[in-house]
Write a structure and sequence with these properties.
The structure is a single chain. The chain is of the alpha+beta class. The chain has 25 helices and 26 strands. The strands form 5 sheets. Strands 17, 18, 19, 20, 21, 22, 23 and 24 form an 8-stranded mixed sheet that branches. The protein has a 6-stranded mixed β-barrel with strand order 4-5-10-7-9-8. Helix 1 crosses helix 12, helix 10 packs antiparallel against helix 15 and helix 15 packs across helix 24. The longest helix is centred in the middle third of the chain and has 38 residues. The protein is elongated, with a radius of gyration of 34 Å.
Length: 799
Amino acid sequence: MIQNYLKIAWRNLTRHKTFASINILGLVLGMASSLLILLWVQHERSIDHFHANGSRLYQILENQQTTGNDLSTTPTTPHLLAPALVAELPEVERSVHMTPGNMLLLAVGTNSYRERGCYASPDLFQIFSFPMVQGNPKTALVGPSSLVISEAVARKLFGRTDVVGRSVRIGNKDDRQVTGVFQDIPTNSSLKFDFVLPSKPYIKQNPQAPRWSRNGWRTFALLRPNVDIAALNAKMLDFIHRHDSTLTMVTTFMFRFEDTYLHSKFTKGQPDGGRIEYVRLFTIVAVFLLLIACINFMNLATARSAKRAKEVGIRKVVGAERAYLIGQFTGEAVLLTIVSAMIALVLVQCLIPLFNQLTEKQMAIPYDNPIFWAGLLGLALITGLLAGIYPAFFLSSLQPVKVLKGNSPTALLRFKAGAVLLRQGLVVFQFALSLLLIIGTLIVSRQMHFIRTKNLGIDRENVIYMRVDGELTRHFEPFRQALLQAPGIRSVSSSAEDPLYTNNSTTGVSWKGKPQTDNTMFFELPVSYDFVKTMNIQLVAGREFSKAFPADSTNYIINEEAARRMGMNNRNRTGGPAGSPVGQTMSFEDVPGTIVGVVKNFHLNSLRVAIEPLVIHFGTTNNTLLVRTQPGQTEQALASLEKLAKQFNPAYPFTYTFADENFEKLYKSETLVGKLTSYFALIAIGIACLGLFGLAMFMAEQRTKEIGVRKVMGASVGSIIALLSGDFLKLVAVAIVIASPLAWWAMHEWLQTFAYRIDIAWWMFTLAGGLVTGVALLTVSYQSIKAALVNPVKSLRSE
């Protein structure tokens, strides 16, 4: 019987090629889009889930409460936290701290490459499942001159991976011995590094690091089996306060590491979304795109039902039972979806390189995974059943007496009000979803435009970043002076990190009159001379650091927010104009100094967070060169920079980035979401229009006689087109009414994740509604015009 179903289904498909092609196109677009989205969703959900001890692996996060009772959660913690956890908490089996990431030069002979690495404590490779192919994971990071590298770096430097014991020069000054080689970090890891250095020597070189008030490290813990995490977090609350009595408003807690990538957003100390919101959003989009394709099948199959009415009648007369007919029509739908699934799989295989490039992933179709094939078959079967069950039940319900007694087939297809409402509701659903995606695309694009064009208080245009290392660390000032004389260069400075993405923070700031309970977290930025000038930051009071003032090595510049948090705006002061903290004394990490300048607030981080208080101090080991070029002379400036960099630092490759490019990287997730939403919105509206085309074809068949009568009575072609089109435009109008408030609510919630955001304007809904209405009108017009131009003699011939 199944074989018979398949034969009949195949004959119907080949006999009605246009109908089959439209159905297959809609299903292929829906299934291919869903497969791509689900591959991305699966990859996102797999991040950090490959560690053998994942259920016992936790990251320590810190809640920082300010005097205004604001609570912020940060992954940066003190360096001292990791060893203290193991020493004082029996629930902790191992703990490790590591830096976020450093770009350093690794050289062997004439081979030299800049790679991203980190400093970490010895237990790194015993806690995380980064298998070592050479060396002992227990001892690889114990020695002060140790170096552990990835297989990729080993091949770059030595041409092979068995290199334990070989020497590598770090930063063109320190020779380190390779004590281990680990497998390349998998793509589904949130921790990315190509080499690891022991943290102890690094800490010794930074005397301010061993302070409980100073953050900048990531801390992870491997718990013992069967630990009560709630009870442990209760013990963790005052852990830092017990070691530093001044830190009364700083608490810590453990959060499952497997969840940190997707659940990175916290509100009042509690997890409140993050990338998981995008994962859920696109999972829903994948389901909806598939549903839209199924709805198209229903509408097109129903529209074509008049042509199969007599077939049903004859089959019933010769003894076919209703169950047989249901099986036949459902089988046709399932066969169609299986064919569509195979075509969709080929399409996905063709598109996945572009999709990987767009998402910056390395996804592949898991052909060798039986679960994938079972899932694909299940998806095809479910899609076929969803798409075909309604047409199957409808067609099998036709009565053979009415079908075969000579009536026009269209006369048989007068549906009950409930069936009509169902079809219309499905069309409304399609266009409501399309509107949601279009409105979402508009608002995301406007927010990203706002971010790109907002005055950040710091000018990122015409600014080049370059790493300061090797000989440049010893001859920075002559190099800077040479750059200032070079063509195309306007000003030069340096900082310890990207001024647009500052990580390091501390509570170790003191000033006269500071309350004992004030644990305000201040960001810090070490800089050199001309920083304010180079970054075009507005100086609202005082001056920036100058060689004319030797004491500036211990003086400070603060931003307006820092002045507000320290309560200095309304004090009587000397040494500065009224309303300025200039001349006031303060202490940073127990180093006293004088405030010599106040800069206007500028963004230190993503626009998702409000501007934080900042202390700018003079740094002597800054590793980021900041070069402002003359407008329109970027090429000359780059040529000058490359020439002088090779002259002063010949052993290092010349590499650079632009400040605005680094800024764009802060919003990779939002940019990706905007692009994906726009692409899938186009696909959704395209599939929905196929469904509308099917419904228009059905309605034209239903109203053939009515149109003929109206034309005989004198109705013009224009009035008939308006009549037929008006029915569909009403459905689109209902979709607009339903989708608009839902879109406003969803996008309002999304915008709340930004401290600085656009307002949702009425014109966005008008534009989206007009776009959908125009597309729908164009889709319907073809069938409406075709029906209006039919000769009424042909329409009424059977009456």
